[in-house]
Amino acid sequence: MQKHNFHTHTRYSDGHDTPREMIEEAVRRGFTSLGFSDHSYAWYESYYSMSEAGTLSAYREIRALADEYRGTIDVWCGIELDGESGVPYLDYDFIISSVHEMVRHGVSLPIDSGAEKQKELVRELFGGDYVEFAKAYFASLAEHVARNKTDIVGHIDLPTKYSLCPEDDPRYRDAARDAVREIVKWCPLFELNTGAIARGLRTVPYPVPFLLEEIKAAGGSLIVNSDCHYRAKLTCWFDEAEEYLAAHGFEKYENQRLNGRISGVTIWR
Ligand SMILES: [Zn+2]
Ligand SMILES: [Zn+2]
Q: How far apart are CA 229 and CA 19, in angstroms?
């Protein structure tokens, strides 16, 4: 099993543990590196985002912990950057680009903060049309990745979280495939995100098989992340993810580079 995770949350955003507790858990599991990626500060009201002050505190604390644990584990300070957050002002080691909200006319509605809220979003902004919602989501994600220095594309098919999106509708699939082909031009690395499995909301990770095929065909690659909000779930579905990716034609490459700073990473191509 790989000994890293680059999508983890702490109490600075919507995670349940402190950075130190997360690092201790990673060390206990024999990790070689741990990347923190708390949710970026957002201008709209959001229970899951870091506060403005918390953003700086988190950055300083994680940098200090990285020094303290040097030689035991590599600790990286990244961010899960929301599409609406703008360019980060701190020097992060890596950026996961994700879209969790749709904004229209200054109003922000969440995509993955409960099925009822998602239904409200689709009703308010798209007259109940889930395919139009999905198209707008994919356009927003593609624009976000193109605009920012993205290292990892976060949970690409997040709108399917509550099984309300018509995943078998050819119009949905076309929009999703178009998004992959556009996004891969800016960032080839997508995450296989097992977070919704950890929370009992799904039995398969993001992305689903037809998108895996599109990513492979477009020359993209994958990194396995658990989008960890509880340290007990740090390696949730990691063994199964290896089987899942191998079953869909991906090969494992160890000791790869994530970017100019981070190496020793397992990537699937
Ligand atoms: Zn996310
Ligand atoms: Zn996350």
A: 11
